[in-house]
Design goal:
Pathway: Cofactor biosynthesis; riboflavin biosynthesis; 5-amino-6-(D-ribitylamino)uracil from GTP: step 1/4. This protein is an alpha/beta fold. The chain has eight helices and seven strands, in the order ββββααβααααβαβα. α4 crosses α5. 34% of the residues are buried.
Length: 220
């Protein structure tokens, strides 16, 4: 297998099931990043990692962010995804280095956009997020983090400080050979529209959300 030359004249990684296709500067409102574009040949998903600063091999501040069109692009308050993405990018820039891996194919914890909207409609009728997925005959969480681990490996990252409240992300990275030196909480203040969703994530999906204990009343 041979190496390819990217648009910046740099060699890309060797062809694997997750192949680096391109690297380009990406200035953002949070700071200057480099966007690394990957193709997951196994699943057909196009993935991107946003890198700020020079990555070290150990203890890299890292966010694995599951695609959420409603939250990331439309500012939905049904979840905290958009705020988590913005906070992660800001914290990486403030730290001087780090990476945010944006994971396509993870919409609705892996069930897809239309199925997620159907599940949200059931939640509006009183089901929680777990019950809604099951009522549709869908898995509660179908996400796979193998591509994320291979992207981190391609970037030379051996261990991470993982920005996540989800223990399953940590467990998945460890299974795929990435050491998690620390799990960094990414706690977003809840609102009236997402407090039930967040409590379900804590009580039924084991997310670490200690800040909810102090939220007897939440803003609308």
């Amino acid at each position: 297998m041979t190496e390819k030359v990217g648009v910046l004249g740099k060699k890309t990684s060797r062809r694997t099931d997750v192949e680096r296709i391109v690297e380009t500067p990406l200035p953002t409102v949070y700071g200057k990043f480099r966007a690394y574009g990957y193709l997951d040949h196994e699943r057909g998903d196009e993935q991107v990692a946003l890198v700020h600063g020079d990555l070290e091999a150990e203890g890299v501040l890292t966010r694995l962010h599951s695609e959420c069109l409603t939250g990331d692009a439309f500012g939905s308050r049904h979840c905290e995804c958009g705020a988590q993405l913005a906070t992660a990018l800001r914290q990486v820039a403030d730290a001087g280095s780090g990476v945010v891996v944006y994971l396509r194919g993870h919409e609705g914890r892996g069930i897809g956009l239309l199925a997620k909207l159907r599940a949200m409609a059931l939640q509006a009728e009183g089901l929680d997020t777990v019950e809604a997925n099951l009522a549709l005959g869908l898995p509660v969480d179908a996400r796979d983090y193998g591509a994320a681990a291979r992207i981190l490996d391609d970037l030379g990252v051996r261990s991470v400080r993982l920005m996540s409240n989800n223990p399953r992300k940590r467990e998945a990275l460890v299974r795929h050979g990435i050491r998690v030196a620390e799990q960094v909480p990414l706690l977003i203040p809840p609102c009236e529209s997402n407090i039930t969703y967040l409590r379900t994530k804590r009580e039924r999906l084991d997310h670490h959300l200690p800040h909810l204990d102090a939220m007897a009343h939440v803003p609308s």
